[in-house]
Design goal:
Blueprint: H1 18-32, H2 37-54, H3 63-76, H4 79-100, H5 124-134, H6 142-152, H7 158-163, E1 173-176, E2 185-188, H8 191-206, H9 233-247, H10 254-267, H11 272-279, H12 284-306
Helix pairs in contact: 1-2, 2-4, 3-4, 5-9, 6-8, 10-11, 10-12
Length: 314
């Protein structure tokens, strides 16, 4: 018994729907970007949301559609959130134009002008309180916590610290391989920072642990079953939050330690280019907040020198 021959799709009819093709292009684009998992998730969300709303093939998406979408976002989101969405679209359509020759509808779109946010660095008194609080951490985690704090106060993001392996520390510097916006690089550690990490690693050696370069640099003391015992992003975040509560430092986050590192480098008189290399900021605009804070502090010191007074302290 012979069956009916399968009908072939007309030559002009695509076997892949426009939506499927757009999803494929989004994934292709993300594969070309060195993004952290969180950033990749955010990019995917922004792009797929826009494509679902505009509901048109790439070739028919025009600047007016981007403008209309911007208006919709402006009605419900903060200007900074609108800019993040527009930045994702601009990056994607830049890539699409280069890779496939599609017209770029974002070329005439301008992002919102935002005031430069202030640096949220910690005062010397707050840092001292945090170091004192570290001494009161539970004995089980104290040595590890000091080592993690050392990495964070050298400007690493929490996700970068969580991703560090034993092979990423050479006794002098940390090698950041997994980083936001492809901001990988090397960060040298000061003597107290090296001592903190070396002491932690020595403690682990004394337990008989066999070191492997791909093993986590920082271990969790309450690992999830059947997963590597890595001290992850959430664990680091909550550790720093608890440390802030112990020290009486309000609203402490890992990122405030990054702000403090950047500001202190500039306050010492380091060339901004060198400081930015160590913090691995891709955006010069975002780095300017630290330069502004450092200039204000330097001007204040100069003021008190000029009038012959010691700078007052709170």
């Amino acid at each position: 018994m012979s069956g009916s021959p399968a009908k072939k799709a007309p030559r002009h009819q695509s076997l892949t729907s426009p939506t499927d093709l757009q999803n494929v292009r989004v994934e292709e684009f993300l594969a070309t970007k060195a993004l952290s998992p969180n950033s990749q998730k955010a990019y995917r969300r922004e792009l797929l949301t826009f494509l679902a709303i505009v509901n048109k093939p790439f070739a028919r998406i025009q600047s007016r559609h981007i403008v209309q979408y911007k208006v919709q976002l402006t009605e419900k989101l903060a200007p900074s959130s609108v800019n993040r969405a527009l930045s994702a679209l601009s990056s994607f359509f830049d890539w699409l134009e280069e890779a496939y020759g599609n017209p770029n509808p974002t070329l005439t779109i301008r992002q919102n002008k935002l005031p430069l946010p202030p640096a949220r660095d910690l005062s010397d008194a707050e840092l001292e309180a945090l170091f004192e609080a570290l001494e009161n951490r539970p004995n089980l985690t104290k040595v590890r916590d000091k080592a993690v704090f050392a990495a964070l106060r050298h400007g690493l993001r929490a996700g970068e610290v969580a991703s560090l392996n034993l092979g990423d520390y050479d006794g002098i510097r940390l090698h950041i391989r997994v980083a936001k916006d492809d901001s990988s690089g090397h960060v040298p550690l000061d003597a107290p920072g090296r001592d903190a990490i070396n002491t932690y690693l020595q403690q682990r050696r004394e337990t008989g642990e066999s070191f492997n370069p791909t093993s986590p640099l920082f271990l969790s003391h309450s690992p999830v079953p059947n997963t590597p015992p890595r001290f992850g992003y959430q664990g680091i975040y909550y550790f720093i939050k608890e440390l802030g509560e112990m020290a009486g430092v309000a609203n402490l986050t890992p990122h405030r330690l990054r702000h403090t590192f950047a500001t202190q480098l500039l306050l010492t008189g380091m060339e901004p280019l060198h400081a930015r290399t160590l913090t691995r900021h891709k955006s010069e605009v975002s780095f300017k907040r630290y330069a502004k804070r450092a200039l204000e502090a330097a001007a204040e010191r100069a003021f008190y020198r000029a009038i012959g007074e010691e700078p007052p302290t709170l």
